[in-house]
Amino acid sequence: MRSPQAHSRMFASLPPLPLMTLALFLLPLLVIALGGGAAWTQASSTASEQLSNFSVSNITHNSATISWSDSDASAGYAMVQVNGTDVAKNVMAQIVTLTNLKPDTVQNIRILKISSDSSIVDNLKGSFRTLRAPLPSTALSNLRISNISYATARVDWDDALPDVKVDGIKIFTKAYLNGELIFERRHDSPTYIDLKYLKADSDYTLEIRKGADTLTGSFRTLVKTDPKLSNFSVTKLTHNSATINWSDSDIHDGFVTIWLNGSILDPSEIKGRTSWELTGLQRHRIYRITIRKYIRHAQVDNKGRETSVRYTNP
Length: 314
Prior knowledge:
The chain is mainly beta. Helices cover 9% and strands 45% of the residues. It contains two helices and 23 strands. Strands 4-3-6-7 form a four-stranded antiparallel beta sheet, with no helix packed on it. A hairpin with a 5-residue loop joins strand 6 and strand 7. It is rod-shaped. The termini are far apart. The C terminus is likely disordered.
């Protein structure tokens, strides 16, 4: 038998081993020395792929149903995250209905498979976008088109819910004339429009839209004619006042001016009237009264035209 010194001389005479070979040779010895021979495993860096087949159904503006497959559903449970927030824990089934979602928003979903020892053994990701919030009914009703002339018209309607909002913001009221957007407002909840610069003797289709409601109507402008004043009269004559009256072939378009002894009365533009009370008159004095009509809303002629009826009080 060789002595220990001989063994040492034998190993010393062997060529040096490569470093990697030496490490592989010594590692089992080191494990046995430290662990007393116990078995150990290193955690896998990849998931076990138990989850699959992510799908989404019944998507609305604030909810959706998600589902998935689990090849080992009997072991552990699932946890669902939406945009990084836990929304469902201890899920045993492979389906969850999500609620209270934001409209028109991408929802990033992560499903975690949790084992019985509370470790994550798999995860599955998916995403979808919620629908836009539906526009509420704003209870528009009773569309009225009046005061139609050859160049103008008045539009009125009723709105039972003028302050209705979507996501905290009041929604617009919009008006379309022959399909073209002509009006868009929301802050003061309008319920009327004065249409101007229309074409004479023409057909128009009108739509008022707000939320889910739409009102429709149609009208035809009048044939263009020169304005005519007629039937001048004086009533309620006293020692210091009188009421003057006249007829107007197109009362809703333009304005009139009243001249008293060559001076224009205030206000200088009188609209929608066929009578006017004169006050502060002097006793036993003759007054020359002239009424002039001006049209400024015609589409072709914006220069203004006038016609007058003169009356001299005897």
